[in-house]
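STRUCTURE:
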């Protein structure tokens, strides 16, 4: 699949087939995420891989009862390493660059998943303290995105997008 086809094909999928994602596909997904750009090439983020049904059930509660979290065979949780970025960039790294790093990596995850025939949904509605507790995150970490992944059990229509003119301001 070429890049533009991948971007056009990506959809938010909330219903997943029970089929597991094989190790080779996960490896390729993670290798692609590892290519994401980051401030100073620090990669100031951590990725938690969650497969356990028990952990996913806990995370449903931490993710404001979004059932796709439990239905997906695989969850990736992207967490910003604020202290790591702060060491090089000070307050700006702590408050901003680390969040950007984790967010860019999560976006690469969704595109790579699509290219690999997987589907995903970006879960941003969650209690960061509860998710941190469930995944046993270190104190300096802040969860940024929870990405349920798997093979789709639904095929939603393409949703309308804003006109490009509404998004831009040329100066």
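SEQUENCE:
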């Amino acid at each position: 699949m070429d890049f533009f086809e991948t971007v056009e094909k990506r959809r938010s999928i909330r219903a997943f087939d029970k089929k597991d994602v094989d190790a080779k596909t996960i490896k390729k997904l993670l290798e692609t995420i590892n290519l994401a750009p980051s401030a100073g090439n620090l990669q100031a983020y951590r990725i938690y891989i969650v497969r356990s049904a028990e952990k996913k059930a806990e995370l449903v509660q931490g993710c404001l009862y979004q059932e796709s979290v439990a239905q997906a065979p695989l969850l990736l949780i992207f967490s910003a390493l604020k202290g790591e970025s702060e060491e090089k960039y000070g307050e700006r790294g702590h408050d901003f660059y680390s969040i950007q790093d984790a967010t860019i990596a999560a976006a690469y995850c969704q595109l790579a998943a699509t290219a690999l025939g997987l589907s995903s949904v970006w879960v941003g509605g969650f209690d960061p303290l509860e998710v941190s507790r469930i995944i046993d995150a270190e104190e300096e970490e802040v969860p940024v995105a929870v990405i349920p992944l798997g093979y789709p059990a639904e095929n939603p229509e393409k949703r309308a997008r804003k006109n490009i003119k509404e998004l831009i301001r040329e100066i």
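REMARK: The first helix runs from residue 3 to 9.
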